Every structure is written in C-alpha cells, then in structure tokens.
From TrEMBL:
Domain Response regulatory: 11-126
Keywords for this protein: DNA-binding, Phosphoprotein
SMART domains membership: HTH_LUXR, REC
Residues modified to 4-aspartylphosphate: D61
InterPro entries attached to this UniProt entry: CheY-like_superfamily (IPR011006), NreC/VraR/RcsB-like_REC (IPR058245), Sig_transdc_resp-reg_C-effctor (IPR016032), Sig_transdc_resp-reg_receiver (IPR001789), Tscrpt_reg_LuxR_C (IPR000792), WalR-like (IPR039420)
Record-given protein name: Response regulator transcription factor
One of the Pfam families matching this protein, by short name: GerE
Species whose genome carries this gene: Streptomyces asiaticus subsp. ignotus
Amino acid sequence: MTAQHDGRPVTVMVVDDHPMWRDAVARDLSEAGFDVVATAGDGPQAVRRAKAAGPDVLVLDLNLPGLPGVEVCKEVLADRPGLRVLVLSASGEHADVLEAVKSGATGYLLKSASTEELLDAVGRTAAGDPVFTPGLAGLVLGEYRRLAGEPAPTAADQPAAPQLTERETEVLRLVAKGLSYKQIAERLVISHRTVQNHVQNTLGKLQLHNRVELVRYAIERGLDDA
C-alpha cells in the first residue's frame, strides 16, 4: 500500500498514552514513508494538536486520560470532517467497536495487529477504505442492518431523496457490499480516482460525511442486496 496521497506523503498523527508504544508506531510509520506530523498522549492534547496539524489520518487509542478516544474523535471530526480516524485499541469488545464507529471512526484495528497490518490499514484508511480487524467488519455491518431495520422517523415535509446518477448508484451498491475502491474500480473497469470522485459526489448529494455513513444509507435502502 502506497504511503502517497494526491502525490504527496500521507500525513498521520499518532495518539496513545503509552510513550514507548506511541513512539514505536510513529517510527514504523515514518520508516514506511508516512509523514508523522504530530503525536499526543492525552485527550485534550490530541484534540488541540489534531486541529492544528490537520493530518490525513488520525491513529487513535480509545483509552486516553483527560478525554476518551471517542470524544476526541467526535470533536476533531466536527472541526475537520475530511479527516479519517483509525482506532488502534487493545479492546476488541463489541460495544467499544460500535461506539468508535458511531463517533465517526473509519476503521478499527486491534493492537495485536502486525506492523505490516498497521501500515496497510493506515494506507487504506487514507484512501477512504473502512478497515477492520477480521471479525469486526461483520459486527459493524450487522449493527447497521439492525439499525436499518428499526422504523425511521417519518415527517410529511421530509425532502425527496437526492437524485443519483446510474453510475453513482452502481458504485454505492458495491460500497454497500463491502468492496474496496480498488475492487470497485476493477469490476466497473474505471480508475480508482473515478471511483473516489463518484463516492465524493454521492457524499455531497446525500450530505453524508464518510464511507461508514454511506454504507448505512445504502443498507437502509436495501442496495447491498440488489
């Protein structure tokens, strides 16, 4: 996985309250070609530095002093919606995973992951792919199915759904099935960049913020079964 983003190194910030672990992750990322622009050891410091540094990817531990990781995630994304958050946690508890995703995290990796898996995950997160430790992706998708099964609030004055083009709908359907941008590009015989453009246009039309919200939108409309 390339450490490039739009022709420049992917910028990353590492947040963890254990200095040795934080330094090791930052070093591994730097050696792999990522540009580590900041690190932080507690929640409030993480929020301040993430807003100042504006990295492409925030590698975030959940268990932080001062402010929990999920709150850091919410605050930073409220300020910088385009930022992608990869949670790197020792906890595989389902409640922690779902809370992280609901707070806006794009991916969730356990600290037991290898260095290679971490580097791949950061690169894929920067590209907009949701990355989950094996076994957790199904959990997250299952939760979205459950939420989608709950009756949605109805309002007589709700605006009509925005009109997506045929190709945007096609890309959205494949996103909902869990395909990566690379797989979608290969299936539709278009470039990776074109897939990203379609997804960005769709996000804009639907007023959604990230791919996780997009998957939920698609599942609510049954596109993953189409």
